[in-house]
Amino acid sequence: MTSLEFRKKVLPHLLKIGIGLGIGLLMIVLTQPYFFTIPFLQDIEHLASDMRFEWRYHNSEQKDIGATGDVVIVGISDKDLESMPDKFPFPRHYYAQLIENLNRSGARAIGIDITFETPGRGDDTLRQVLNKYRNVVLAAKTSIGGTGGDQYQEKRINYDYGNVFFNVIKRFGIVNVIKDRDDVVRRYVPMFDVYGNLTPSLAVATVNAADGRPPRELAGIAEDSFVLQSKLGQRFIPKADASSFYINYYGPVNTIRYVDFTQAIDTEEFQTKEEMEFGEELNLFDENTASIFRNKIVLVGSTMAEERDYHKTPIANPADPALRTDMHGVEIHATVIQNLLNGDHLSAVDLNLESLFILFLAVITFYGVLALRSVKASMVWLVEIAAAGAVIALIGVIIFVSLLVFTNSNLILGMVNPSLAIVFSYVGTIVFTYLSERQQKALIKGVFSHYVSPSVVNELISNPEKARLGGDKRELTVFFSDVVSFTTISEQLTPEELVELLNEYLDEMTEIIIKYNGTLDKYEGDAIMAFWGAPIPQKEHALRACLTALDMQDRLRQLRIRWKKEKRPALEVRIGINTGPMIAGNMGGKKRFDYTVIGDSVNLASRLEGANKQYHSSIMISEFTYTHVKNKLLVRELDLIQVKGKNEPVRVYELLGTLQKELSEEQRQSMEMYSEGLQLYRQRKWDESIAYMQQAASLDPECYPAQIYIQRSGLYKLNPPPSDWNGVFIMTTK
Q1: Which residue has the higher pLDDT, 581 or 307?
Q2: End-of-domain residue from the set 643, 661, 679
Q3: Helix (H/G/I), strand (E/B), else coil: 318
C-alpha cells in the first residue's frame, strides 16, 4: 500500500477510532473515581441505583422475606404507648421482661436499637437479665456523619459508648447509618473507630451474637471485600468503598416482619393498661407468638413518628408513594442482618472492567454513527433520525441489561457512565462532522474564492443543491467593462509588464465589485463581467452595480496619477450596465461548469459597453437600469439606440455620479441646455437644437454628446429624415 492509499483509506478510520478512544478516556476521567468524583454524576448514579431496586421489586418474583426470613422486629409504636402502663421512655424492666420472653422462645440473638444513656427505673432488673443472657446487643450512637478514611471515626462519645450498662455487657453495636448526598441510605458501615477502638455496627454485632462469636469480633478487610466469620465459615461482603458495603433492600418499609412490643412483652408476669383497667388477663404473648421468635434474630426498636428514626431508602412505599422511601432505622439494620445471613450481597462490576467497557462503547458509537452518516440518502434527516435512534436503542439495551443482571445476579452493572459515554460520543460525532464540514468549506472557499465571488462560494456551501446544471430566471443587473485601446497598450509593453499592469488593474477593480457584493463572473483578457442579484437576492442590485462603476472610475483616476509617474500606460475603461430578466445558474458540463448569467439582457449590457465609444462616455446604463436609480444617481440621457442584433430601441443614459456630486454653475446650466436641446432635436427643430447644444458644449467642454447632436442636426437639416423617424439611432457595430 502506498502512502497516498494509506492516507486516503486507512488514516481516516484510524483518526475516528483515535477520537473515539479520546472521548472514552475523557469519560473515564470524569466518571470513574480514579482521580476525583463529580457530585452531579454521583446523584445521577444514585437515581439509577434506585431504579434498579424499583424495577426488581415490581418486575420479579420476590420471596416473602417477612415469612421466611431469619429476622423479626419488635416495634415500639404509638399503639403500644396506649397499652403500656408507663410513658415512653419505658422503665428498663420492660426490656428485661422482653429479653426473658424472647430467650424463652428460642431467639438466637437480640439487638436493642435503643440507647440507655442515663440511669432509669428498672436498671437493676435489666442488669440481672443482661448478666443472665449473653446473646443481647445494646445500641451505641456516635456523633459522626458522612464517610471518611478506611473507618468511621468517633471523637465525641466516651469510651463506655455512653451506655449505663457498659460494665454489664460487652456486646455493643453502632446504630449510625450513613447517607448519600440525596439523603438516601444505600450503604452500611460494618465497623467504626471509637477512640481508637474498632467497634462493630449493630448488624455485625448481632450476627456475631447469633453465631456465638466474640463480642468485639470485627469484619476483616480484604482488597475488595469485608470478611466476617461464622459457623458456616467466612462471609465475604463486596465493598462499595473502603468503609462500607451496599445494602440489598428486599422491599419498602414493613418488608421485614414486625411484632408489636405489647404482644412480645405481655405474659402473666406483665400487666398492660387494659389488663389493669378490666381486671382480666389477656397475655398476648402465647405459644403462637413464641413460635414467631424461635431460632430468629430479633431487633427491638422504635417506630414512633416522634422518635424520627426513619430514613429514605431506594424503594418507595406502595401504600404512600408521596413519602418516597421512609424506612425505620431498625428495619435497615434488620435488612443488613438478613443480607449477612443469606449472603444476599450486592457487588459492582470491577472499576477497570467498566472503564474498558466505556472505552469500547465510546469507540463503536463514534465510529458507528459516523459510518451511518456516510450513507448516501436523498433525505439527510432520515439518516440523522436513524443515528439518533441507534444511540437511544443502545442506551436502552444497556439499561435493560443492567436491570436484568441486577435482578438475577445482584450485580451492579453501570448504566449511567456507559450511557454518558454513548451520549458524549454521539455529541462528538456532531462536533466532528461540523468541524470536518467547516474545514471542507474553508478549503472550498480558499480555492474557489480566487475565481468566483465569495457570495457564490458561501451560497453553494450553505446550499449545495445549487451546485447543479441549469438555473432559474430572475431580474438581475449585469455589468461589462473593457479597457480602451488595450491592444495598442499591450504592444507598448513587454509580456511581463503587461501581466503586472493587468493584474494590478483587475485586482483593484475586483475588490470594488466584492465591496458592493457583486458576483464576479469572469475575466476575458482586460474585460470584466459581473452581476448583482444572484445567487443571493438583492433588493438594490441596479444601484449596487452603478455605485460599483462610479467607484471604479474614481479609483482609476487615482491610479492613473501613479501610473503616469511610473511612466506606465494610464488605462481608461468603458462600462455598460443593464437590468432585466436573465437566467442565472451553473452552466457547462457535468464535471466542469461556471456560475454565470445568460439572456438578451446580458447581451444588451455588453453592447452598451461598446456603445460608449460613440458618445465618448465612460459609463452607459440602459433605461431599465435607470428606472431603478433615477432618484438616486445623477445621469444624462444620451440617445434612443438600436444596438446590433436587436430590433427594439432602448433609451440609454450616461452615469455621471451620485446626487451628492458637486457641479459647477456652468455644468448645471450645461445639463439644462443639453436636455432642452435633445427635446428640440426629437421635434425636428434643428436650428433651435443646434443653438442649445452649442451653449451646452461651451459651458461644459466635457459634454461630448452635445457635439454629436450638433453634427446630427446639421446633417438632418440638409437631408431631413423620413416622416416616420422616431429619433432612434441604429448602431451597426458592436
Answers
A1: 581
A2: 661
A3: coil
The last residue of one of the domains, among 302, 327, 348, is 348
- In contact, 311 and 329? CB cutoff 8 Å: yes
Nearest to 173 by CA among 210, 218, 137: 137
List, in order, residues 6 or more apart from 521 with CB less than 8 Å away. 529, 530, 531, 594, 595, 596, 597
- Name the residue with cell 422504635: 302
Q: Map residue 416 onto helix, strand or coil.
A: helix
Closest-CA residue to 358 (of 15, 639, 25, 642): 25
Amino acid at 593: F
DSSP collapsed to 3 states, 425-478: HHHHHHHHHHHHHHHHHHHHHHHHCCCCCHHHHHHHHHCHHHCCEEEEEEEEEE
Q: Is-contact 509 657, C-beta < 8 A?
A: no
- One domain for residues 380 and 341: no
**Residue 26 identity:** L
**What is the residue range of 362's domain?**
15-49+353-444
Round to whole Å and give the CA distance between 706 and 675: 10
Does 451 map to a domain?
no
Comparing C-alpha atoms, which of 469, 440, 473 is closest to residue 457?
A: 440
Separation of alpha carbons 283 and 270, rounded Å: 8
Q: Specify if 8 maps to a domain.
A: no
Quickly tell me which residue has 436641446 as its cell. Answer: 677
Contact, 693 vs 709, CB < 8 A?
yes
> Are residue 232 and residue 367 in the same domain, yes or no?
no
Decide if 449 is inside a domain: no
Largest Cα span, the chain: 154
- The Cα 444–Cα 442 span in angstroms is 5
Same domain for 692 and 729, yes or no, is yes
Residues 115 and 222 in one domain: yes
Three-state SS at 725: coil
What letter represents residue 108's amino acid?
Answer: R
- Whole-angstrom CA distances from 643 to 299, 609, 611 are 112, 11, 8
Please list the residues that pair with 173 across neighbouring strands: 139
Task: State whether 634 and 673 are in the same domain.
Answer: no
Dihedral (CA of 545, 550, 553, 557) sign: negative
pLDDT tens profile 36-55: 788 888 888 889 999 999 99
Helices 202-211, 329-342: axis angle to 10 degrees equals 50
**What's this model's pTM, rounded to 2 decimal places?**
0.64
- Tell me whether residue 159 is exposed, middle or buried, using C-beta atoms within 10 angstroms of its C-beta: 0 to 12, 13 to 18, 19 or more: exposed
- Are residue 97 and residue 177 in the same domain, yes or no? yes
Q: Note whether 652 and 709 are same-domain residues.
A: no
Domain count, the chain: 4
Give the helix/strand (H/E) hosting 385: helix 380-409
Query: Sorting pLDDT into bands at 50, 70 and 90, what band is 446?
Result: low
Residues 504, 640, single domain; the answer is yes
Whole-angstrom distance, CA of residue 469 vs CA of residue 314: 65
Query: Residue 612 sits in a domain of what CATH number?
Result: 3.30.70.1230
Residue-level pLDDT at 398: 94
Residue in this structure with the C-alpha cell 422511601, named with its chain if needed: 325
**Pairwise CA distance, residues 678 & 653, whole Å:** 13
Please say whether the beta carbons of 224 and 168 come within 8 A: no
- Lookup result for grid cell 461464622: 230
How far, in Å, are 302, 426, 510, 587, 718 from residue 722 at the CA level?
Answer: 125, 81, 47, 45, 13
Per-residue pLDDT tens over the stretch 247-288: 999 999 999 999 999 999 999 888 888 888 887 878 889 999
Residue 450 in any domain: the answer is no
- Chain Cα centroid distance, residue 418: 18
β 347-348/220-221 pair status: unpaired
Instruction: Tell me the Cα Rg of the chain.
Output: 49
